Each structure stands twice: as C-alpha cells, then as structure tokens.
Amino acid sequence: MKVTITDIAQAAGLSPATVSLVLNNRPSRISESTKNKVKALAQEMGYHPSFAAVNLRTSRSYTLGLVIPDIRNDYYATYAKGLEDVCQEMNWSMILCTTNQHPLREKQYIEALYAKNIDGVAIVTTPSSADDSIYDSNRELLLSMKVPIVQTDLTNYREPINAVVCDHEKGGYIATLHLLSLGHRKIAFITGPSGLEAAQSRLEGCKRAFHKYNLKWDDDLVYEGDYTYESGLNGIDYLCDREFTAVFALNDLMAYGVYNGLSKYNLSVPEDVSVVGYDDHFLSAILTVPLTTVRQPVYEMGKEAARILIHAAEHPDAKPVITTFDLKLILRKSTRKID
Amino acid sequence: MKVTITDIAQAAGLSPATVSLVLNNRPSRISESTKNKVKALAQEMGYHPSFAAVNLRTSRSYTLGLVIPDIRNDYYATYAKGLEDVCQEMNWSMILCTTNQHPLREKQYIEALYAKNIDGVAIVTTPSSADDSIYDSNRELLLSMKVPIVQTDLTNYREPINAVVCDHEKGGYIATLHLLSLGHRKIAFITGPSGLEAAQSRLEGCKRAFHKYNLKWDDDLVYEGDYTYESGLNGIDYLCDREFTAVFALNDLMAYGVYNGLSKYNLSVPEDVSVVGYDDHFLSAILTVPLTTVRQPVYEMGKEAARILIHAAEHPDAKPVITTFDLKLILRKSTRKID
DNA sequence: TAAAGTTGACAAAAGGTTTTACCATGTGTT
DNA sequence: AACACATGGTAAAACCTTTTGTCAACTTTA
C-alpha cells in the first residue's frame, strides 16, 4: 500500500540501510550517484516516511503540545497561531490541549502527551492562587518527563525553566504614565488576580509611575478583578461612588466591561472618563470608541516558544532561555487630556 | 526507562502476548486470576502503552486532524473547542492545522496528516470562487487516503460525504422575517462570497421571506461582502445614497463594520437603522448596542464532527452521515419596530 | 484406556525505520 | 608479494505492540 524504504531499496538494488542513510543525509560514505538515484526514486515513488516507525525507533515525534486554558480567548488563539506557524515551517505538528481551567484535565493531557513521545510542550496555564498544588504537581510531572517545556509570563519557578515573558512592569508603567501626562490624578485600577505574577508586575509598574510623579498611591481606587468582562462591570459598580477621571483596566476584556459599566452610569468615554486597556485585543480597534491599550506581541511570543522548544529538542543540553518581549502603548480614542 | 509490556510480563512470569491480550480486553481464554494479576501490575508499575508502537502495529493513531483557515476567528475556535472536548472525552488527540487560507499550506498539512496515520479529519475550509482547483485536488487527495472526513456547511460534493451543516436557508429566512414583521420594507443585505454554498442558502432564505410577504426583491440593496469587518464598512459606503431602514449583515463581523459605517454617516442603531447579524459572536452581546443575530450552534457542530469521525474510524464501512443543526434568532437591541 | 475436547498460555512474525559494527573490494606502500 | 588503508555499502538488532496459529496439560467421553 504505502511505499516504504524497503520498496525503494528493492527498486534501486540497494539495502534499506543505504536508503535510510541517504534520505536522512547521514554522514556516511555513499557515492553521489547512488545518493541521487535514491533521492530520485523516493520522489518518484511518492515516499513518505512512516511517522509511527520513526517515532518508535527514535522516540521522537516532531510534535509540540500546547496547553492553554481556552482557545476561544483571542490571547491564547494568537499564541497558538504563532506556535503553529513555526511548527508548520519546520514540518512539525502541534497538538492542542485546552484545559478549560481544569487542573485534572491538564494532568490527563500531560500524561497523554507523554505517551506520544512529545518533543516539547508550551504551557500557558499558570497556577494562580487557587488549586496551586495540583498545578504544581502537574509541572512536576512535566519536568520529570524530561521534556523541554516553555512557560509564559512565569519566571519565578523553583528551577530555571524556558519562558517567554513580557516586561509587564513596564507595561503598567507606560500606560499609567500616559494617563498622568494627560493630567489625570484620580486614576482607578482594575487589576488581575493578585496571585498571578504578571498581574502583580503590572500593578507595580503603575505604582512606579505614581512614584515618579511624586503622587500618593490610593489603594481605595484599586479593584481586584479576574480578567473577565464581568469583573470590569463590577469594578465600575465598586468605583461608582468614588471620585476618578480615568480607569486603567489591566486587560481589554475588563475594559469592555468598564465601557458598559460607565454607560450604565451615563458617563461617556473619553469625555467623562478616560479608559486604558491592556492586550490590544483585535476588537479594541473596532469599538465605537477605539480603546487605548498596551499591546502584547502575543503572536511573536508563540513563535518564540516554538523556536525555543524545537531548539531544545534538538540540543538536549541547551540551557534554559528566557525571552523578554517589549510592550507598546497604542494610543486611540478612549483617553483625553483633562481640562 | 519507560515500562513496557515485556516488563510486566517478566514481573508476572507471563508472556508479552498474554499481557497485551489482557490489557486490551481481547476475547481470549485467560483465567480471571492472571487477568487480575496483570492489571494490578500494570497499574502499579505505571504502564502506559507506547503510542508509536501501537500506531505502527495497528496503523491507528487515535488522533483527529482539524483543518481550518484561522484559529483566531471565534467561529473556528469554537468549533475546535467542540471537537477537542469530545476527543479528550474519548482519549483521542487533535492536531491543529491552520491554513491561513493558503491552499498549498492545506496540502502540506494533509500530507503530514497522512504520514501520521490520522484516523479522521474535520475540514472546515471551503472552496470558494477563487483557487477552487487546488482546494478540489486537496479534497481528492484526502478522499484517496481513505480517511474519514467531515465537512462543514458543504453538502453538494461530488460523492456522499460526512458533514455537519446548519439550515442556513432557514437562518436567512427567520432573520428577514423578523425585520419584515417589525415593519421594515427597505432592507439592505450585506452577503458573504457568492461562491460559498452556505452564503447562497442564507440569501435564498431572505428572498423566501420577501416572497412570503409578497414583496419585490431589490438587488440594488444587496452588497456582496466577504465576511470581513471591512466589507461591512464598505457595504455602508455602497449603500449610503440609497434608501433603507434596516441592514441584514450575513455575519456578525460585517455587522460590526455596519455599526461603525453607520455612525460615520451619523445614523444610529436602532433609532435610524435596524441591524441584524449572523453567528452570535460572543461580543455581540457585549456591544453598547447589543446585536440581534442568528445563532449557530458551532460548539455542538464541532462535537458532532468529532463523534462522526470517531465512529467512522471504528466502523470502517459506516455510511456517510449529514447532521443538520437548527438556527435560532437571538433578539437584542439593534432592531426596532418601524414607526 | 484411548480418543476427543477444553483450558490457559505462548512463540513468533509483522509493522517501518535507524544505527552500529562489520565486510568485501580496490588502491597505494614498502 | 604482503600489507595497510580507503571506499562503498550491508546485515542485523532494536524500538514495542498486536495477533494468529500452536502447544501442552487436563478433563471428559466412549
């Protein structure tokens, strides 16, 4: 049915060993003429190596696993796209593992990936406050598998580990600076879960900006959200009887909630309140009031993750690498100078 | 390193054959006592079958391929999620293949999937007007691989083929009916590419609604878009010097374009113009003017696709099945009764 | 008691590749 | 002539399962 290495050997009057050597460009003493003959024959007969056989023999799968909470979230989808584009380029495959935030499901996936001799896994789910222990044991499991892994936005792990991260401290800093420079002084913050490293860094950046302007930080204007649309809405409910001229929502989804929360109180953006988001979700440019936001190079991060993994798979004793990406403030219509 | 079937055999004082038979519950004459012993041992020693070996021996991978144009599009992401959820349930895997609309890339993917002994592929990309021939030859390739495949929203293929489809004719019908029942008579349509079967059906449904009301259909109020945000904008530019009280955009993304296009001409929704979308993108509920739209059960379609494929993989001579899904009109704030 | 049937398990091949150690043959040295 | 050394290539094992035909050892039947 399928044409094998042996078929080619037969057709060429050679041994399978030779064919294999040629087709993999192994250093060996084989004459140019036979090399050419084999290559031509392989082409002509439509040879494709059996993935299973290669995998069995070499314990390599040329496959990456991507473990994320939710593929419908544009952030993860973009990351996935980056990862996959590099995979495709290198002729690798990507298995998608969406955990829906279930640590147990994550565990199942990790075990399945193991059985498949996966060559690397990019894991974006991050242990937050709750259920840390299972997430941690999953990491442990992953590490014990001796498979290269790359984390996202999580650097403070027990041992050195590959990671792609953004300089979120700077992200928080430049966005806050922007608002301050427009004259805002009463700025409200709707943050991410305080258990997340990346959320903390962002907030620290915000504080640094205040510090730079010699302003007192006011914890009363900080509402801890959880990166959902609803928590943006709730944030405004919390803030409604406080005084503020600007809101910095630490992701775009919450900023959308802020938009609608504000309109509930008949406040308009940016006339009454300036709003800044974080992520540059593709919709932010499209909204009737386009959102000023901090752009993360998520696609590039996905690509880099793939590169790191593939490299690590090919160089078993490569040192862990941490690639840091820069952030950019995208100015749109949701912020204005205060009178 | 990894524990194999032979290790278990050794530990139990049995042959690998017996262990395999037990672990796969093959009908065979093996005493209960040995069965139990083997199972216990497997558990205890942490045995996981080698995917590669099973794959090589049985030519089965327990893996599905998903071929889509773009994972960042919520429609495909939702479909992917449905497919993957079922896979996970059955302990299968899913390889993501994002073509970015490149037929050649699609071809590469199909070949790669073939080499992996893929057990089924869900293919959502649909040959539209341009480049049909390559897409067609890709389908041909897929069919020649004798791998179960399931299409989406494409039924008129040369030979019977699995498919999950929506009754788009009805979708167009009910949405148009809604506008008509609100008193609208000058209704503009921004359609999808006329080469797509699903886009055609939708339009036909619209026409049927007009027919039911004994109204004359006006081709001048139809703008052919391509399902992008921009084409929604362009649609309004085209329509601006025509008379209309409602717009039916045949997907939500274009409806967003319509929103912004209208605001450019100082027309507001729904006061001046009613707008209906199609898809029920998750954002449609969140917009400042929530969008009335036709909801497709995309997640369910993804799940069904997986079920069809897994079933077909397990029953080699199953007949092609076509599952049709119902559509629902979701009433929100973007449409109003005409005075 | 010999033949027939059952029961419980196994030997061995097959699936397609990679890799190492080895083998002929031919060429160049002394 | 005897040897060393390139040159070009191959044999065979290994990777881990699945599956079929076979085989002892018992038990039952005639």
Biggest interface reads: A-B, 46 and 46 residues
Helix content of chain A: 40-55%
Largest sheet of chain A: 6 strands, parallel
CATH-derived architecture of the largest domain in chain A: 3-Layer(aba) Sandwich
Q: Which quaternary structure do these chains form? A: homodimer
Alpha-beta classification of chain A? alpha/beta
CATH class designation of the largest domain in chain A: Alpha Beta
Which regions of chain A have little confidence, pLDDT < 50, spanning 5+ residues? Answer: none
Number of folding domains of chain A? 3
CATH fold field value of the largest domain in chain A: Rossmann fold
Describe this structure in words.
The structure is a homodimer of 339-residue chains. With 339 residues, chain A is of the alpha/beta class. The first copy, chain A, has 3 domains: 5-49, Orthogonal Bundle (434 Repressor (Amino-terminal Domain)); 60-166 and 298-326, Rossmann fold (3-Layer(aba) Sandwich), CATH 3.40.50; 168-296, Rossmann fold (3-Layer(aba) Sandwich). In chain A, 45% of the residues lie in helices and 16% in strands. Chain A is built from 12 helices and 12 strands. Chain A has helices spanning 5-12, 16-23, 32-45, 51-58, 74-90, 103-115, 132-144, 168-181, 197-212, 229-239, 252-264, 298-314; strands at residues 63-68, 93-98, 120-123, 149-152, 162-166, 187-191, 222-224, 246-249, 274-279, 292-295, 322-325, 328-330. A 6-stranded parallel beta sheet of chain A has the order 2-1-3-4-5-11, with helices on both faces. Chain A has a 6-stranded mixed beta sheet with strand order 7-6-8-9-10-12, with helices on both faces. In chain A, β1, α5 and β2 (93-98) form a beta-alpha-beta unit. In chain A, α1 packs across α2 (16-23) and α6 runs parallel beside α7 (132-144). Chain A is elongated and about 85 Å long. The mean pLDDT of chain A is 91. At the A-B interface, α4, α5, β2, α6 and α11 of A face α4, α5, β2, α6 and α11 of B. Chain A binds a DNA duplex (30 and 30 nucleotides) through α2 and α4.
